[in-house]
């Protein structure tokens, strides 16, 4: 996906960009409203992540202009304001959703996916590998003519693996991506999801290989 | 909030008391003045009759051959007759010797010449009014001085005076009651602008700190000017503190977000288990602090708004559906289904911001404690009263803590490892109470918590 990140704090912008790029997304960064408007005019973004307090004005001003310009790129606001009244006014101004800083990247991704799903016009390219097609927004796995709707965690796990075929993922890393930090995440729980994915992929050319003591790897062919 | 004022005395009572007290004083004064004036006039009447009587007797005195003769004219006594049969006394003295009449009649010294003098005296304990006059008769070879005294009891006078007193008292009482009416009318007219001002300030919303613009009487002008200036200062400092909170939140939360993002990214790169644990602990600590800060601000906001509910007509179902849309992405991360069971609409009158916050806290709790791939049922009911019931399949509430969990910063014994501030249920309960409702915690028979939020 292609993101426009509007955030004046360079450190945070770098951190968020790094995190998004790690998942294979493309990120453009603007640190002021003027730049953001220029980016929006020239680039075709799937999603805009918008900070509210910017050096040349309020992010809400940008939001208003953006919506007035009939631009339907979804906007997720990154707000430091946690008060309900502030959050509600954000949605009233045309934001599709918001996350409160500091935010969980898994939650941000989940919200991005939900926003994209709601804006059905915004078709995301499917991920293809072997005879498998994965639609990450709808959470649908297609093998030939057979279509399976994956559960959220199955989808996130498959997305990780399918984006890096041949790479070894340790149980711990997968657990960190799948489970929230306050969950009592036992690494064994990963085996359950790996097991389910294996069943879904049974008829395909993809295989999940267990490497004892190291983790898992997605192979195809 | 809502501190009662330190009340000492009442303007209304003071004004009314002063006016009514003044009226009462005036009524009493009026009574005495009119009565004494009436008594004086009645006395003058009696005196002039007595004078006529004395004079007519004195005129009848003649000196014949050196002997004094007094031939009483009939009219001398008949003019003194009254309805009350007042008794009449007389005494005629020749020089200092009683010639005729009532000996016990106290003698008064008449004025020299032809003047008549009057006095109030008593005879056998009965008060009488007497008049006396003297005349010197000159005969062939003798001069003699005749003194005539006539006295009359005062019963008729007393009756007249009583009648006048009664009328004056009646009149005074009437005057008094009329004054009370006028006083209460004057009091409420005077107090009314004050009450109008009070009402208009009481009716204001929690954030309305605009100056008072309605016209007020001259005497209240200074107070309203001070009030307006106070509210202006309050408004400024409130805006400043709101800006300050927003700015502070921005300054604190942005670096926290940076740290959290880096921690998450780094977690994907490091292999050593102790490093990974340290990073996880870091993320947890950041989440905990930001959540606590948010909840504390929310709680403060709710305490502030609960005093002055900004009620609107709302549909509880729409409110719940918005909330579910908003929380679905989080629920999906744990593959939890959020199911709404509700009639088409449930009308409530309430503060939308408070209700959203309360319900969000309840569903947040359910999400936190629900196991993976479970269901949270959010039921909206209109009967018996509007309420929302949130049921999850988590561990439920510890039975022995059911009554204390809604207390501030109180968390269940089974909440270990789950990030929370201990304010969620407090907020929900405060909101329910502010709307005259309740928050009831229960456990479901087959396990899981069941929270009923009614308004």
What report would you give on this structure?
The complex is a heterodimer of chains A (221) and B (455). Chain A is an alpha/beta fold and 221 residues long. Chain A contains eight helices and 14 strands. Chain A starts with a strand and ends with a strand. Chain B contains eight helices and 14 strands. In chain B, helix 6 runs parallel beside helix 7. Chain B is rod-shaped, with a radius of gyration of 50 Å. Classes of the chains: A alpha/beta (221), B alpha+beta (455). The interface between A and B is large, with 45 and 51 residues.
Low-confidence stretches of chain B: none
Number of strands of chain A: 14
Low-pLDDT stretches of chain A: none
Which sequence of strands runs across the widest sheet of chain A?
2-1-3-6-7
| Overall average residue pLDDT of chain B | 87
Look at the helices and sheets of chain A and give the structural class.
alpha/beta
Which protein chains are joined by the largest interface, and how many residues does each one contribute? A-B, 45 and 51 residues
Rg result of chain A: 19 Å
Brief rundown of the structure:
With 221 residues, chain A is α/β, with parallel strands linked by helices. Chain A has helices spanning 10-22, 33-42, 59-68, 84-92, 105-118, 152-163, 171-178, 188-200; strands spanning 2-6, 26-30, 47-51, 53-54, 57-58, 75-79, 97-100, 127-129, 132-135, 140-143, 146-149, 168-169, 206-211, 215-220. Chain B starts with 10 loop residues before the first helix and ends with a strand.
């Amino acid at each position: 996906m292609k993101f426009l990140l509007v955030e004046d704090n360079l450190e945070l912008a770098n951190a968020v960009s790094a995190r998004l790029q790690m998942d294979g997304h493309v990120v453009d960064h603007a640190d002021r409203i003027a730049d953001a408007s220029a980016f929006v005019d020239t680039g075709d973004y799937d999603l805009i992540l918008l900070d509210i307090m910017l050096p040349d004005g309020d992010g809400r001003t940008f939001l208003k202009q953006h919506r007035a310009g009939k631009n339907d790129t979804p906007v997720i606001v990154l707000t430091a304001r946690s008060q309900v009244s502030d959050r509600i006014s954000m949605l009233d101004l045309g934001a599709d959703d918001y996350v409160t800083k500091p935010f969980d990247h898994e939650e941000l991704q989940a919200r991005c996916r939900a926003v994209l799903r709601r804006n059905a016009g915004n078709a995301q390219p499917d991920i293809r590998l072997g005879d498998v097609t994965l639609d990450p927004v709808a959470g649908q796995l297609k093998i030939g003519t057979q279509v399976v709707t994956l559960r959220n965690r199955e989808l996130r796990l498959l997305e990780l693996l399918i984006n890096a075929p041949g790479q070894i993922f340790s149980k711990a890393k997968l657990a960190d991506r799948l489970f929230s930090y306050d969950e009592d995440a036992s690494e064994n729980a990963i085996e359950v999801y790996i097991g389910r994915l294996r069943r879904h992929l049974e008829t395909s050319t993809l295989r999940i290989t267990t490497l004892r003591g190291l983790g898992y790897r997605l192979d195809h062919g | 909030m809502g501190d009662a004022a330190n009340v000492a005395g009442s303007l209304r009572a003071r004004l009314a008391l002063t006016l009514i007290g003044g009226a009462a004083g005036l009524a009493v004064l009026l009574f005495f003045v009119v009565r004494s004036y009436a008594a004086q006039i009645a006395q003058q009447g009696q005196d002039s009759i007595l004078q006529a009587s004395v004079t007519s007797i004195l005129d009848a005195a003649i000196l014949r051959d050196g002997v004094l003769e007094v031939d009483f004219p009939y009219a001398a006594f008949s003019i003194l007759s009254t309805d009350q049969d007042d008794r009449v006394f007389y005494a005629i003295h020749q020089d200092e010797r009683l010639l005729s009449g009532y000996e016990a009649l106290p003698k008064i010294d008449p004025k020299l010449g032809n003047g008549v003098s009057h006095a109030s005296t008593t005879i056998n304990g009965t008060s009488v009014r007497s008049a006396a006059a003297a005349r010197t008769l000159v005969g062939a070879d003798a001069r003699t001085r005749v003194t005539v005294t006539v006295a009359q009891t005062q019963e008729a006078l007393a009756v007249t005076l009583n009648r006048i007193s009664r009328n004056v008292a009646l009149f005074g009482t009437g005057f008094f009651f009329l004054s009370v009416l006028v006083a209460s009318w004057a009091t409420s007219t005077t107090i009314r602008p004050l009450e109008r001002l009070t009402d208009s300030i009481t009716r204001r919303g929690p954030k309305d700190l605009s100056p008072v613009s309605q016209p007020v009487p001259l005497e209240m002008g200074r107070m309203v000017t001070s009030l307006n200036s106070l509210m202006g200062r309050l408004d400024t400092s409130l805006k400043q503190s709101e800006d300050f909170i927003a700015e502070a939140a921005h300054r604190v939360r942005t670096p926290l977000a940076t740290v959290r993002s880096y921690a998450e990214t780094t977690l994907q790169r490091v292999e050593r288990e102790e490093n990974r644990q340290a990073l996880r602990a870091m993320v947890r600590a950041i989440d905990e602090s930001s959540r606590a800060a948010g909840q504390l601000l929310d709680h403060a906001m709710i305490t502030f708004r609960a005093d002055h509910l900004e009620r609107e007509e709302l549909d509880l179902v729409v409110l719940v559906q918005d909330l579910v849309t908003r929380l679905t992405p989080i629920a999906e991360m744990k593959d939890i289904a959020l199911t709404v069971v509700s009639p088409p609409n449930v009308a409530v009158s309430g503060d939308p911001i408070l209700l959203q916050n309360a319900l969000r806290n309840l569903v947040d709790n359910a999400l936190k404690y629900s196991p993976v791939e479970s269901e949270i049922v959010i039921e909206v009911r209109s009967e018996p009263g509007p309420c929302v019931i949130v049921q999850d399949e988590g561990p439920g509430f510890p039975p022995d803590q059911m009554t204390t969990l809604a207390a501030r910063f109180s968390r269940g014994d089974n909440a270990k490892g789950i990030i929370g501030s201990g304010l969620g249920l407090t907020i929900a309960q405060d909101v329910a109470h502010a709307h005259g409702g309740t928050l009831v915690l229960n456990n479901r028979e087959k396990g899981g918590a069941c929270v009923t939020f009614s308004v």
